[in-house]
Amino acid sequence: MMQDMIASYGFYIGWSFGAAMVLMTGEWLMADVQRKSIIRRLQRMARLDGRGPAGR
Amino acid sequence: MWRLFKTIVLRDLLLALRRRTEILMTLFFFIVVISLFPLGIGTDRQVLVQIAPGVVWVAALLASMLVLERLFAADYLDGTLEQMLLTSQPLSIVVMAKVCAHWLLTGLPLVLISPLVALQYRLEDEQIVSMIWSLFLGTPALSMIGAIGAALTLGLRGGGMLLSLLVLPLYIPVLVYGAGAIAAGAVTNAPQQAYYMLLSAFTFLSMALAPWATSAVLRFSLE
Amino acid sequence: MIVSINWFKYSSPASFYPLAGRMIPWFAVPAILLIIVGLYWGFFETPNVLSDQKQYYRIIFVHVPAAWMSMWLYVVIAGWGLIGLVFNTRLSFMMAAATAPTGTIFTFLALWTGAFWGKTSWGTWWDWDPRLTSELILLFLYIGYMALQAAIDDVRRADRASAVLAMVGLLMVPIIYYSVNCPDPNQCTALHQRSSVRSIESNIFWAMLTMTLAFWLYSFVVILKRVRNIILEREKYMEWVSELPEIKSQRSRDR
User: Fold this and answer.
1) From the list C143, C152, C184, which residue is nearest B156 (CB)?
2) Residue B69: CB partners within 8 Å, gap ≥ 6?
3) Given Cys at both, which of B209, C132, C150, C240 links C14, Cβ 3.0 to 4.6 Å?
4) Domain count, chain B
5) Is the model's pTM score more than 0.90?
């Protein structure tokens, strides 16, 4: 049954389900990456804030 | 209120008459686009009658969209728009008047020139009449909906492209029924009354809602 | 006893930010579990044939939930925009902005999977079927929304302008849907929606619903994640942001 499915429609099902999973996982990870970069930027800002006389 | 409406319409018409080329440019754009299609697709009469409704309406959409940017731009740049916002008069009347003037300058000429382009596509007399009617009933809705887009993109870099992206999907109902009305006359010989009624319903709906939405957006944009 | 939640307390970004952080796992775990359950159910526990369609009908388990979510999320965006305009809350606009990319992805997925389904059952990648066309127009609306938001530099104006655009779009969607569904008004006095949900076998239907619920929970996760990013980005000069533990402690970067 599994073999039959893959043989006859694996291409279509794979491409559609695959695209869904890739896009959704990608979106999820993208949000995490974005968060990392924002936090790094804010940390740098906070560091400069504490040290320099120039303030923010 | 009526006086305010009339003053603004007359003012915009006068301003436009001082710079006639802009109106003529819209008109020629419309004609040129329509003339290109037979060159690309072929001049077979059967084909021309088939594509005429869609081509005329798509050209009308593009022509009216290209001039939208100028609906508020000049008044925005010289600060008149800000003054209009500050008056005690309702802003939606001002918007309504500006859009009406805009339609008189860009929509009405297309309606009037359409018999000429219909001849290029070898349409019969009654089909030409249905083309004039559908354009006459549908193009005001284009100006009305377009005004919202013009207000949204007021003063932005690359506003023109963005404007077309925002506005064109919203034009789809007008395109479907406008082209449908002409096609019903030219191709399938179906009664056209239902098309005209839907087109005018859509136009009235947009006249009721668009000035209000446009003035709300103008207030955000100039805040 | 009625538990009263002070909604206005959580309408401030500063108090919503940690709340969103705490909510994410509660949505993330069920979302992943339900996607696994739904896919397993859809692939192995449902009949191999749906009316005259064979194995490939299983695309339904991604296609229909994605299409439903794409439409629902557009309503959500317009709703947040309306709330934002009425109550003048910054957070509502941030939620609307965070929702748009997820909605776009679901719209794209619905079209993409629809193309593959169409290729198998109709023999063509694209057909001007009313539903496909409406979904394409919905994609245009989403893209226009995000483009407008990206084009305006002033955050306040961008928020309000795109909120109005979303509401105008929402108002137009039924009209557009009607017009593509029924281009000839002479033959279409009563619009009959040919939805096949009712006739579907209940087993398939429940698997589909599980996937929809999973996608819905997934949207919560990514939207909350994104709204947290947006909050940080927009409030970066606020006192409370620099007081956050993840920013204060340099050693343990993020959690």
Assistant:
1) C152
2) B150, B153, B159, B160, B163
3) C240
4) 1
5) no
